[in-house]
Amino acid sequence: MTTAETATPAVPFAFFALKVARTRRLGPSLVRVTFTGATDEGLEGFASGGRDQSLSLFLPHPGQPEPVMPPVVDGDLYGALGAWRAMPEDVRAVMRSYTVREQRRAGDGTAEVDIDFALHEDGGPACRWAAQAGPGDRVAVLGPVVADNTGVRFRLPEDADEVLIWGDETALPAASAILESLPAGTRARVWLEVPYAADRLELETRADATVTWLVREEGAPAAVDAVRAAELSGTAPYAWIAGEAGSVKALRRHLVNERGIDRRRVTFVGYWRKGLSEDALREVPDTTEDES
């Protein structure tokens, strides 16, 4: 597989070959996998924009030593993705979308990238891979080579006087990174939904943030009910909501139709939908815009 050096400057993404450096369990429903470069080029050129930076993760099938990917010829990413789609599904790498939790330099100067995986008993191939991942395991990612890229959805308006955030366990990595990015003193109301009390994380932020954990094992209210009950004080709020698509749709409808927030100031991302795989979700038309 060809790596970042062959990407043309006009395309803000490139393929990178990665290997697992270590893993760490963050709670019953979350595991952090730390990656380094698997080739001489390493992660040189990888440039996360932070916040909710997304990338495409390509995983091997069970029994494969590394993900099966076509080569990138003359920097043609679209051609490579087309060739990947044309490969047999039981051979080609499994692709899933994930958030870059953090990019940094280790003490020895090695570039590292963290990706946090939400784990479920009935989870899909990425969930199963992450639960068993170990040092040396290989993956590939289609990731950013410039920090300001379309994989970053959180865009805080200059005039925003309050930030509203909701996310479930699949959006917890992005929500955590967003909180870390907020300027000091920013007023933020945050609702984070997780399966178990032990999934609560220590969050770092300079913002004036009120964080409410909605723990399902404790009988937490539905996302839209929790947000509806809150008193908001901002006159120019900005909202970011991500996670299960049904909850995201209900929350966006509430914020736009009931709260009167300009829909252009509500960023929403359905990371998954109950009863559907990510592959199936891509084939379902997104009607959220029409229904709000």
Key structural traits:
alpha/beta, disordered N terminus, globular, about 290 residues, about 30% strand, five-stranded parallel beta sheet, seven-stranded antiparallel beta sheet, Rossmann fold, Elongation Factor Tu (Ef-tu), domain 3
Describe, in plain words, how this protein is organized in 3D.
A hairpin with a 5-residue loop joins strand 5 and strand 6 (111-118). The chain contains six helices and twelve strands. The chain folds into two domains: 4-144, Beta Barrel (Elongation Factor Tu (Ef-tu), domain 3); 162-291, Rossmann fold, CATH 3.40.50.80. The model is unreliable at 2-9 (pLDDT under 50). The N and C termini lie far apart (43 Å). It is α/β, with parallel strands linked by helices. The strands form two sheets. A seven-stranded antiparallel sheet has the order 4-3-7-1-2-6-5. A five-stranded parallel sheet has the order 10-9-8-11-12, sandwiched between helices. The longest helix has 14 residues, at 245-258. The chain has helices at 77-86, 125-132, 172-181, 223-228, 245-258, 278-282; strands spanning 13-27, 30-37, 54-59, 94-99, 102-105, 111-118, 138-144, 162-167, 187-194, 208-215, 237-244, 266-272.
